């Protein structure tokens, strides 16, 4: 074993030894920890366990808050702003299930939230009650914040795989996501309706989701903890020199993602509808590269194959969940630089010049595309300008993007 590998292994072992006791779930409360009171500095919110079977995030943030409290009062500079971590699906966490009645990470569309707030709380199902309480917590924190606001939502998955982040492709989100030495997946949030981070995007905040690895792996907690520390430094809550193990955390993540492309965009999502019988073929991990034609899963007796060479993302190896798997492809970094430049030049103004494309008559910053007229490549142009969300409206497709703050 060479010297570098030996050092990396030692870093990993040390991080594991220094980890805290396992999560005591029966006494779990909504606020997992908070630190700092300065409303002028950055407010960093963390959510863990939005899916109740994903407990590693809870342990990761508890480690971070324990360490912050331990060093409180020591003369190592000052914590800027405030950070707070929330347990997501409290009842789900206590029972160890993804959800009880419905997925808590699909409830955050403006329409569903408006309905929720207009209704008698006694009629809430399990996850609606969780969403109502979380919303109250978020609003309380946001009302006090005078500086920038960031949120990181911590997840884990049923398949093996390295850590990575997902973000809506806005420039402020990129700054945080690229500060983490893990791959970034574009378009995952847009493929899903009603993710909690949507609510933050719509309100103009920086919001990214991170996946730490397989649910029950010990490494997953370490990966998530590393991402929380690095993010607190990237956001300006802490200076790099105030996190003595920052180098260990960086190296740990770099080792986990070796050989994996830096940016991947979603090209395909396999949706599982109610009553469908889905079975993922065993052995796939997130970021496995597969050639076109590879058999991935069976659904109602039909074999599902990759339609192009792809990276497999988040294959589903658990009972609950609506996404069977995602397929993605690598995005060259220059493409993102080009995208930034075009957005700065407000090139979206030129989109109606493309054949089959016109502005949406009722919705701001949305375009309608007639698939019968639009040329090949139109989708790529929309992606380049950040319009990754695509929804049918009659026989037209409507493209929209995150608010560009
Ligand atoms: Zn999750």
Order of helices and strands: HEEHEHHHEEHEHHEHHEEEEEEEHEEHEE
Mean pLDDT: 87
Cα-atom radius of gyration: 21 Å
What is the CATH third-level topology name of the largest domain?
Answer: Aminopeptidase
Major sheet, described briefly? Answer: 11 strands, mixed
Give helix % range: 25-40%
CATH homologous superfamily annotation of the largest domain:
Zn peptidases
Number of helices: 12
Read across the widest sheet, the strand sequence of neighbours is 1-3-2-4-7-5-6-8-14-13-10
Number of strands: 18
Morphology: globular
What does it look like?
The chain has 405 residues and is of the alpha/beta class. It folds into 3 domains: 3-256, Aminopeptidase (3-Layer(aba) Sandwich); 266-330, OB fold (Dihydrolipoamide Acetyltransferase, E2P) (Beta Barrel); 333-400, no CATH class. 33% of the residues lie in helices and 23% in strands. The chain has 12 helices and 18 strands. It has an 11-stranded mixed sheet, with helices on both faces. Strands 15-16-18-17 form a 4-stranded antiparallel sheet, with no helix packed on it. Strand 5 (164-167), helix 6 (171-179) and strand 6 form a beta-alpha-beta unit. Helix 9 packs across helix 10 (246-256). The longest helix has 19 residues, at 126-144. The protein is globular, with a radius of gyration of 21 Å. Residues 11-22 have low confidence and may be disordered. It binds zinc ion. Residues 51, 54, 155 line the site of zinc ion.
Give structural attributes.
405 residues; OB fold (Dihydrolipoamide Acetyltransferase, E2P); four-stranded antiparallel sheet; 12 helices
């Amino acid at each position: 074993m060479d010297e570098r590998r030996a050092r990396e292994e030692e870093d990993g072992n040390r991080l594991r030894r220094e980890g805290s006791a396992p999560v005591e779930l029966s006494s779990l409360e909504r606020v997992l920890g908070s630190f700092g009171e300065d409303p002028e500095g950055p407010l960093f919110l963390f959510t863990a366990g939005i899916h109740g079977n994903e407990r590693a995030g809870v342990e990761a943030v508890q480690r971070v808050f324990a360490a912050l409290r331990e060093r409180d009062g020591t003369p190592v500079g000052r914590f800027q702003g405030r950070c707070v971590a929330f347990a997501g699906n409290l009842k789900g966490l206590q029972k160890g299930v993804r959800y009880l009645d419905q997925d808590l990470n699909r409830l955050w569309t403006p329409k569903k939230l408006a309905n929720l707030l207009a209704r008698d709380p006694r009629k809430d199902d399990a996850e609606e009650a969780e969403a109502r309480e979380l919303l109250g917590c978020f609003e309380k924190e946001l009302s006090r914040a005078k500086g920038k606001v960031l949120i990181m939502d911590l997840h884990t998955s049923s398949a093996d795989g390295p850590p990575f982040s997902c973000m809506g492709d806005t420039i402020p989100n990129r700054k945080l996501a690229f500060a983490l030495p893990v791959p970034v997946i574009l378009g995952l949030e847009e493929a899903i309706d009603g993710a909690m981070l949507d609510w933050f995007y719509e309100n103009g905040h920086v919001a990214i989701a991170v996946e730490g690895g397989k649910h029950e792996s010990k490494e997953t907690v370490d990966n998530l903890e590393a991402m929380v520390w690095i993010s607190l430094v990237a956001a300006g809550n802490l200076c790099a020199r105030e996190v003595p193990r920052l180098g260990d955390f960086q190296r740990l993540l770099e080792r986990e993602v070796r050989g994996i492309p830096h940016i991947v965009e979603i090209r395909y999502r396999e949706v599982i509808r109610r009553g469908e019988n889905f079975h993922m073929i065993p052995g796939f991990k997130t970021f496995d590269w597969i050639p076109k034609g590879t058999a991935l899963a069976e659904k109602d007796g039909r074999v599902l194959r990759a339609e192009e060479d792809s990276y497999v993302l988040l294959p589903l190896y658990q009972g609950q969940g609506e996404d069977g798997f995602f397929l993605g492809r690598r995005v060259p970094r220059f493409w993102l630089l080009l995208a930034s430049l075009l957005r700065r030049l407000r090139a979206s103004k030129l989109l109606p010049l493309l054949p089959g494309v016109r502005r949406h008559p009722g919705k701001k910053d949305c375009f309608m595309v007639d698939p019968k007229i639009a040329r090949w490549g139109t989708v790529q142009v929309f992606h380049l300008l950040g319009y990754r969300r695509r929804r049918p409206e009659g026989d037209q497709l409507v493209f929209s993007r995150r608010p560009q703050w």
